[in-house]
Specification:
The protein has about 425 residues and is an alpha+beta fold. The protein contains five helices and 17 strands. It folds into three domains: about 90 residues, Umud Fragment, subunit A, CATH 2.10.109; about 90 residues; about 170 residues.
């Protein structure tokens, strides 16, 4: 390779590495590999999503955030809220996320999506890529420091020894390449039965009885119907919690609260149902959302502060559960019923009810217990293939970068052959 081209390649590679390191090191750019199915069909498990931090976010953006400062990162779409607390929901989820991250808690907005490459960024492939990059940098620098004009008798033995090393690397490359081919030819292992996991289901619904009229021909308000404050002062909200685990093995509590927020920034929480113990693994609780009380409270806050709270309030019924299975650590469960409240109406916002034997409801089902530890077995062909590909990448890079030039192995002018 011509020295000028080699130097240009080295400078570009170093520059790209520096830019990427600076962007990721400062948190301006990050990447996530999707794990679940909450964003299907937009993203699928194993996709790579690159995020970038921006000055502002808006409804419709897909953003990444950490769930309650935990290690796991969630990629969901903004459906409401503002910089003080965004409302997020997975495209494949029925309810909004329990956490409402503020703008400074958002990792970044999705700017690039590459399907089906997530495995490349997991060990050992990621380690192989990093090792290959380091070898390329070191190899390019090594060759640049010893240009053709500097080759003399003192480098002949070094060149010959490097030639032997590189020939040995070629042999390793061939064996590793054969190993990779064999992993593709080997039969796939039979799928093993997975342990059955317990699940928990929560169902939220609101309802009220009203006189039969042109507004409510059936004489009932059900989940999804608008509630007109001229006709109703309050609505009942019911939460049904159940699990498919053995009733005797489940212990915990369930509660309901009401979250009220205004565009002005005013915010408060009102208890609806205190923590209630499960009975035989299930519980039904009902609370009353007093619309007149909420509107009167907002008016008092506006009068006391001299700042209007706004014509529309965000009213969210939040159901929470803390449940333990077989005396294990409690598992948290949350489900929300979000509304928009004006002096005239209370209307469901951001979620779509689904049909059930109980009528229209908003529901969610999650795992109750941690996955059973997998029995340790021999490495699968796919895992062996990934390891061999990483080794092949490192060895091939080392072979290409350390292979001596022809001038390195030839005698210097005037020296006997």
């Amino acid at each position: 390779m011509h020295p000028t081209i080699r130097r240009l390649f080295l400078f570009l590679l170093v520059g790209m590495t520096a830019v990427i390191a600076a962007a990721t090191g400062t948190g301006r750019v990050a990447y996530e590999v999707t794990e679940g199915t909450s964003m299907e069909p937009t993203y699928h498990r194993g996709d790579l999503v690159v995020t970038a931090r921006t000055g502002s976010y808006r409804i419709g953006d897909i953003v990444a955030y950490r769930n309650n400062n935990e290690e796991n990162v969630i990629l969901h779409r903004i459906t409401g809220g503002d910089a003080a607390g965004f409302v997020l929901k997975g495209d494949n989820n029925q309810s909004n996320d329990f956490t409402k991250p503020a703008a400074d808690e958002v990792i970044g907005r999705a700017v690039l999506h590459i399907p089906n490459v997530g495995a490349v960024l997991r060990p050992p492939i990621s380690h192989g890529l990093l090792g290959g990059l380091v070898l390329i940098l070191v190899g390019s620098l090594f060759v640049t420091l010893y240009p053709r004009s500097a080759v003399g008798p003192e480098f002949v033995d070094v060149g010959r020894r490097m030639g032997k090393v590189c020939r040995a690397l070629v042999v390793v490359d061939v064996f590793v390449l054969v190993g990779v081919a064999l992993t593709f030819a080997s039969p796939r292992p039979a799928a093993s039965a997975t342990a059955v996991r317990s699940s928990q289901t929560g169902v939220l619904a609101y309802h009220a009885d009203v006189p039969v009229s042109d507004t409510y021909p059936t004489g009932a308000v059900v989940t999804g119907d608008p509630v007109f404050t001229n006709l109703l002062d309050s609505v009942a909200v019911s939460f049904h919690y159940t699990t498919d685990a053995a009733p005797a093995s489940v212990h915990g509590t369930v509660g309901l609260e009401l979250d009220v927020a205004a565009p002005s920034g005013w915010h408060t929480s009102l208890p609806l149902v205190p923590a209630t113990e499960l009975v035989a693994g299930t519980v039904d609780v009902t609370g009353t959302v007093d619309l007149r009380r909420i509107l009167a409270l907002a008016d008092r806050v506006a009068e006391a502060t001299g700042v209007g709270v706004g014509a529309t309030l965000d009213v969210t019924v939040i159901a929470t559960a803390s449940v333990s299975l077989d005396e294990a650590d409690p598992v948290a469960f949350g489900l929300q019923l979000p509304f928009k409240l004006t002096p005239l109406t209370l209307a469901l916002s951001g979620v779509k009810p689904s049909a059930s034997p109980l009528g229209p409801v908003v529901s969610s089902t999650t795992a109750l217990d941690a996955p059973a530890p997998a029995r340790r077995a021999g490495p699968t062909p796919n895992r062996v293939r990934l390891v061999l590909l990483a080794v092949l990448l490192v060895c091939a890079t080392a072979t290409l970068m350390l292979w001596p030039r022809r001038a390195d192995a030839s005698p210097a002018p005037g020296e006997a052959g």
